Amino acid sequence: MPSLPSPPVPQKLREMLKDYPEHIAGLQQSLDRLIEKPMHGTPPFERAIWLLEGRLETCIAEARAELKVAEASGDAEAIANAKEKEFVMGYARANMWLPDLRAYFDGHKEAFE
Which of 40, 43, 48, 111 is deepest in the core (most CB within 10 A)? Predict the structure, then answer.
């Protein structure tokens, strides 16, 4: 496979997660794996979706764990922050509108054949 740039994290996800740059970086690492370790037989766009969904599921689980810790501490600010983070991660997972990611794969179709 020729050297390709990694697919970018979709703009909508970057906007939704703007307050969580570490999670954007994690999503990018997941997408980087598409180029580093191609998987023949699995359409790359579908694999990208699965990787993003999996990473966001991990983010949701982490946010829920943070919420439990915050609730146990009784720290109202930490509880509010953790609830917001859980909401944002869940919203991002449920609303992955990815036309720019689709455009990336459509534009590099020959490289994945």
Answer: 48
Q: Which of 58, 66, 71, 61 is nearest to 82 (CA)?
A: 66
Look up the pTM and report it: 0.85
φ/ψ bin of 42: left (φ > 0), alpha (ψ from -120 to 50), beta (otherwise): beta
What digits encode the pLDDT tens for the residues 25-76?
999 999 998 888 877 788 889 999 999 999 999 999 999 999 999 999 999 9
Rounded to whole angstroms, the Cα distance separating 108 from 113 reads 9
